[in-house]
Amino acid sequence: xxxxxxxxxxxxxxxxxxxxxxxxxxxxxxxxxxxxxxxxxxxxxxxxxxxxxxxxxxxxxxxxxxxxxxxxxxxxxxxxxxxxxxxxxxxxxxxxxxxxxxxxxxxxxxxxxxxxxxxxxxxxxxxxxxxxxxxxxxxxxxxxxxxxxxxxxxxxxxxxxxxxxxxxxxxxxxxxxxxxxxxxxxxxxxxxxxxxxxxxxxxxxxxxxxxxxxxxxxxxxxxx
Length: 224
Hints:
By secondary structure, the protein is of the alpha/beta class. It has 8 helices and 10 strands. The protein has 2 domains: 108 residues, Cobalt-precorrin-4 Transmethylase, domain 1 (3-Layer(aba) Sandwich), CATH 3.40.1010; 106 residues, Methyltransferase, Cobalt-precorrin-4 Transmethylase, Domain 2, CATH 3.30.950. Helix 7 runs antiparallel to helix 8.
């Protein structure tokens, strides 16, 4: 016998956005791996789940991966979550899964699907989304010009994430690469102050400058 790793999607903001299956799995596993245990504890407390938690994030090294592997070998069932959305999308979840697959490809890895900011914004984009390109977060420093050139050269709509500290900078760099782009930008999706901005880069930038730039952003770029 061997344990199972459940990859569990959690809400991106509104705590009601979690599936019945995800709640059942979180209650039944032996351990929940969290990007930030404090963030996950808020969700677990909301649904009166008292399962032990352990940190697993981008700075966790091979020692943590080995310990998780050992627990699975000891027939422990483990849930992997991130702070919000689906693990493995712009977070280190896939590094853990790759490690486990190399060491024992028979370890069951089960997806428990649910929220993701990119699919939330794509669903309300109002543009043809049968094909699109997702690029995660732009690089902080080196490689930003190449990133936005890739956005500009894509024949498909492009989705990327951005922080409140760099959103205006990214819009200006995007304008240099693709001046006539049409945007749909989601801020704080599913949260109390959720806002969706639509328009040209100049129009969206003007709206953001008037508002308080807070919260995480999801940006959809379509060709005008």
